[in-house]
Amino acid sequence: MRLLMSGVPLQALGYGLRGFFDADGCFFQEPLRKASGTVTAVSVNYHGLRQISRLLSRLGIRHSFYRKYRNTIAIYARASLETYLQRVGFSIRRKRESLEKTIQAAKGIRLKSN
Known about the structure:
The chain is an alpha+beta fold. It has helices at residues 2-5, 10-24, 46-58, 78-87, 93-107; strands at 25-29, 37-43, 64-66, 71-75. The protein has one domain: Homing endonucleases (Endonuclease I-creI, Roll), CATH 3.10.28.10.
């Protein structure tokens, strides 16, 4: 963990987190509120998810860590979702596009339909 926290460039950390969230994360858009959504990751590995939490903090991404029933990281504020999209993002198109549409709806930007 020390290696990840000290000498690794922020862009490389973003790529590593992208791989994690592509595999174990999801984006949930509120069905009744198109301008609201949450990036989440759930794991039984408490210590591993705490490390992910520290890396998100290092990238300046505000998030919540819950340990009630399962260990969960949640990113839900619009500014945090924007920072997440810029610094980490998703390489899976459906997740990325859903997050982008939600952020644009929150900003009040009208999307062009094809």
